[in-house]
């Protein structure tokens, strides 16, 4: 069954759902300044409660140079907001009994049969040791596999990724299977299951989905996630290039945005227009209306508008903290991001989860699910308050401005019930 999505409009009286309309308007007033002073070209923000939209507003331009405004159906590169979608797809296969979370991934990806782990040394002369246990499916879902990203610039293994052509993209002409084979030749940053490191783990998970299901990742997502949820504009290659938001980069000298093309990052600016490797960790383009459907599915514990793609207990399990020893990201994660706190935040199966709102130092609820993308997009799902919120823009890096914490404060200060 395919449910068609439509552009998001406010469909509820905010006061009936516990919001002060004047306080909600502070969201627009605050982020309008980001456009006025050149920090962002444009944005779209959406707040909903009990599945009903209480606030949906746009500002600025999807393409400032061409003077094209942000619209309800603007296509956004969601980058790592792809990860929860791929993780949900993997859990659909798990529900079908196709694998156990504890299964070694080498059962389907034999290139990972004998992983080696970095101990010390430089990228040119690393000392390695054998992994003490195999990489398991659970490790991919939780970013505890020991994989990394070349763009971290935080470890000698990151340098090896960059030397192999993996920084913000993949080498030309290589598909997902080829990428996974290349990463399997790299040493791991740590022993599987011992730490958390943001990484290509979800891309490897995407390849695992392909091998287990016998379908390309895009076909599997369309059949089992995107199609059933009515996410008709969410694709690896944008369906309407004229509506694609231009990618911008924060100028460190001025704080103002600069187009990726002008900043010399032309390949990233064209990433959503080309049929390259299928990145389950960061390759999708979507709209606010489409991603709203996904957040409502999470809030509905696997179901939205009568369409169920996961069991309720499966979503509950994904939302629990799966980090070693029940620790938070500050304790077992490598400090890689500046745009979100690590204190009081755990990580589940494909999503971050708040385990201690006080230590988080941001108004939130225990059990809140969230994640964001490299171009400053973000979402969260708060089951306790029955709230979902999303912010879309296209600015690299996501640490340029404290958008995520500011949006949280602005949403919760408007909640007065």
UniProtKB/TrEMBL annotation:
Beta-lactamase-related domain boundaries: 27-409
UniProt xrefs under Pfam families: Beta-lactamase
InterPro entries assigned to the protein according to its UniProt record, in alphabetical order: Beta-lactam-related, Beta-lactam/transpept-like, Diverse_Enzym_Activities
Stated name of the protein: CubicO group peptidase (Beta-lactamase class C family)
Species assigned in the record: Actinomycetospora cinnamomea
């Amino acid at each position: 069954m395919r449910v068609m999505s439509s552009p998001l409009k406010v469909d509820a009286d905010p006061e009936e759902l516990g919001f002060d309309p004047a306080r909600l308007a502070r969201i627009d007033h605050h982020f309008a300044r980001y456009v006025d002073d050149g920090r962002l070209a444009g944005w779209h923000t959406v707040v909903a409660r009990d599945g009903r939209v209480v606030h949906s507003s746009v500002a600025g331009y999807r393409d400032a140079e061409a003077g094209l405004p942000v619209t309800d159906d603007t296509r956004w590169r969601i980058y790592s907001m792809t990860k929860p979608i791929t993780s949900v797809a993997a859990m659909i296969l798990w529900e079908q009994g196709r694998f156990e979370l504890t299964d070694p991934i080498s059962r389907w990806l034999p290139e990972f049969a004998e992983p080696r782990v970095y101990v010390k040394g430089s990228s040119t002369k690393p000392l390695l040791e054998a992994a003490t246990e195999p990489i398991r499916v659970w490790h991919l879902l939780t970013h505890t596999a020991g994989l990394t990203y070349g763009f971290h610039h935080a470890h000698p293994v990151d340098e090896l990724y960059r030397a192999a052509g993996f920084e913000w993209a993949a080498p030309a002409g290589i598909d997902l299977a080829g990428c996974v084979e290349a990463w399997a030749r790299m040493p791991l940053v740590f022993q599987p299951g011992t730490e958390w490191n943001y990484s290509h783990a979800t891309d490897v998970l995407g390849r695992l989905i392909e091998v287990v299901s016998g379908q390309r990742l895009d076909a599997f997502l369309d059949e089992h996630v995107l199609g059933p949820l009515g996410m008709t504009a969410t694709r690896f290659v944008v369906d309407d290039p004229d509506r694609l938001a231009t990618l911008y980069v924060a100028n460190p000298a001025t704080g103002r945005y600069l187009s990726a093309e002008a900043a010399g990052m032309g390949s990233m600016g064209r990433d959503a227009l080309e049929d390259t490797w299928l990145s389950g960790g960061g390759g999708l383009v979507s709209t606010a209306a489409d991603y709203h459907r996904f957040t409502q599915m999470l809030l509905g514990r696997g179901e939205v508008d009568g369409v169920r793609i996961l069991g309720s207990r499966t979503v509950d399990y994904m939302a629990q903290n799966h980090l070693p020893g029940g620790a938070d990201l500050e304790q077992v994660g490598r400090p890689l991001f500046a745009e979100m706190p690590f204190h009081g935040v755990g990580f589940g199966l494909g999503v971050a989860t708040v385990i201690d709102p006080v230590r988080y130092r941001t108004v939130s609820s225990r059990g809140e699910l969230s994640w964001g993308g490299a171009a400053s997009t973000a979402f969260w799902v708060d089951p306790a308050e029955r709230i979902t919120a999303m912010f879309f823009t296209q600015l690299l890096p996501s640490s340029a401005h404290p958008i995520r914490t500011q949006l949280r404060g602005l949403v919760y200060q408007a909640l007065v019930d």
